[in-house]
Structures are given as C-alpha cells and as structure tokens.
Design goal:
Helix 8 packs across helix 9. Strands 1-2-3-4-5-6 form a 6-stranded parallel beta sheet. It has a two-stranded antiparallel ribbon with strand order 7-8. A two-stranded antiparallel sheet has the order 9-10. The chain has 11 helices and 10 strands. It is elongated. The protein is an alpha/beta fold and 332 residues long.
Length: 332
C-alpha cells in the first residue's frame, strides 16, 4: 500500500494489504469492525458474490457495522446477519443516482422511514448536516440528525480530516469542528468517520460538554500574537476582543511609534504589511531603509497618528503559498 495523499508522509509506503481476518486479529481484545461494501454492483458484474463473502465472514469474526451505498445489497443481507451487526446506509452526493432504486441520494434522504426498514443507521458527508457556502463559511445546520433520530436511525458523519480545508468558522482547529457535531446544544451525531481518529477521540473524551467556564487544569499561560490575528487583522479591537473570548491569559502589544510620537499597537513598523497604505494617498511615502528591511516600506514614523487611524487594516496571511488564507470575510 502507498499513501494516496501526497502531503502526508510516505514513510510507511510498502506495508502489506490486510484481509478482514487480519484486521480482526489486530482489533483484539477491543471489539468493533466496520466493513464498507462500496461497490457490490461491480462485484456482481464479475460474477462474484459480496453477499456470500460478507455472510461467511460474519461467521468467522465479529462485525459490528456493515455499510453500503447500495440499497439492494443491504436489503439482501438484512435478515441473515447476527444480531450484533448493524447495517448502515451510506449516502453519496445528493445528485448521484443510487444504482438499485435509480433514485438520487437526495431523494432517498427525504424517505428516512424507508431506510429504517433495512438499516439501523445512515452515514452521510458532514455537509449534509452542517453545510458551508462557496466561501467556506458555515450555514445553519439542517434537521437531518433530529429527523433521523425521530425514526430510530443512528447518524454517522464522514469526510473529517485534520489536513483538509475546513470552514473558517473553526479557526483552522479540527477539534472545534468535531465539537460542532457532538456538542452544539441542539443535537449530537452518533459517530464520525475520520482520517485522524485521535482528534475526535480527544473531542469526545476530553473536551465535549465542558462549557465555557471549564476549570483550568495546567498552569500554562496562553499569550495572544497580535490578538486573535488568525481571525481578524492584527492588533485591532476585534482581534483583541476575540482573543479574550477565546480564553487568552495575556494580550500582547508590539509597540510602534507614529511621526508625532504616539505609541501604538501594531504588528509591524511597516504599514504595507498590516494596512491598505499602499493603495492610499500616503503611497508616495514609500522608502527603502536597509537597516529595517530590504525593499520598500511605508513606516509608522512617516505618518501621524491621525493619518494612521484613517487607514484600513488587512489580515495577515503568512501561509498563502500553501493556499491557506485567513478568514477572508474579515480581512479588512
């Protein structure tokens, strides 16, 4: 096997492919195996019976869950499995056709009572529950979880990965994303499918339902860098207020000096790095001062405090080379 996502380490490329029986041995003494049968129709085209294979495997090893995006396959095995095995219907894209019913998954989503006749749960992409808009900002949650729970279906959410682009609402914190699904005050999913299981494990075991006034366990200071400069432009009132609400212990203030001698909090002496000064009438004040930096800058000591107050702040984006932008909706 090889790592399919190239930003992840290839250090373990070359490990052997495992069988279901191999995984059963690995999982001892902790029970719990989930088999996902993604393409039963493909096996059938090649005169192979995935149904027979799964039924035989269930007699050798304890299978906790079997999921499939094919209604026909799940209905064909529902009465033949041990009681300990739960069946889960896996939803694909809402416009994709389910092969055995010829309905879209979006249509099937509106008929959860039908799903309940052959499955005890559903597995859905996380966007089915917490959709995001084209700008990667959270939209109001759907009623899917509560609707499914009302008819007796468990709900499992998929597509979680720490190194995937997630909504800006989470401030690049995957832990916050899991908590949004299990500790939002309205509902909780019954499970999550994750590339990095340590993070949901932390969310469930350590951080869920602590509330906003949790007791501090370790005497370590959290110090802001220009306030919450990942969420708002550095050293602005919004950045400092957000840092306080996030629970920071110490607010930092990098002190710069204006032309008229007013000390101000600003992350850089060069206003080009933190404001729209280059697009303002003060752009003519650009100067090269090798002792400070290479290339042109427009420096705080070249503008009065009233001049500086007239500028618009800009959010820092130190990782744009990796297409990681910071909160573009509030960049100014």
């Amino acid at each position: 096997v090889v790592q399919a996502i190239y930003s992840r380490t290839n250090l373990y490329d070359g490990l052997p492919i495992l069988t279901v029986d191999d995984i059963a041995v690995l999982s001892k003494p902790q029970p719990g195996i989930w088999l996902n049968i993604q393409h039963d129709a493909f096996f059938s085209q090649h005169k192979l019976s995935m149904r027979s294979y799964v039924l035989a495997a269930s007699k050798r090893v304890v299978i906790s869950y079997i999921s499939s995006p094919e209604v026909g396959f799940l209905r064909s095995i529902t009465s033949r499995l041990p009681k300990v095995t739960k069946l889960v219907f896996r939803f694909m894209g809402q416009d994709v056709l389910e092969p055995s019913t010829n309905q879209t998954y979006g249509s099937l989503l509106k008929n959860l009572t039908f799903i309940k006749t052959f499955a005890s749960g559903i597995l859905v992409p996380k966007g089915y529950i917490w959709p995001v808009d084209s700008g990667l900002y959270l939209q109001p949650h759907t009623s899917l979880v509560s609707d499914a729970h009302k008819v007796g279906l468990e709900v499992f959410a998929s597509d979680f990965a720490n190194d995937n682009l997630i909504s800006y609402n989470y401030s690049y914190d995957p832990l916050a994303e899991y908590l949004q699904f299990i500790d939002n005050g309205d509902f909780s999913v019954d499970g999550v499918l994750s590339d990095f299981p340590i993070t949901p494990s932390e969310a469930v075991d350590c951080f869920a339902h602590l509330g906003t006034n949790a007791t501090k366990k370790v005497n370590t200071l959290v110090i802001s860098k220009y306030g919450a400069s990942g969420d708002y432009p550095a050293c602005t009132d919004l950045a400092y207020t957000k840092a306080i609400s996030d629970g920071v212990d110490i607010l930092d203030c990098p002190v710069q000096l204006s032309e008229d001698g007013v000390p101000i909090c600003l992350s850089s002496i060069d206003l080009i790095e933190t404001t729209n000064v280059a697009q303002s009438t003060f752009s003519t004040l650009a100067a090269t001062i090798p002792e400070i930096k290479s290339g042109n800058g427009i420096y705080t000591f070249s503008l009065t405090w009233d001049n500086i107050k007239s500028l618009t702040p800009t959010i820092l984006n130190p990782f744009t080379n990796y297409t990681l932008k910071r909160n573009p909706k509030f960049r100014n």
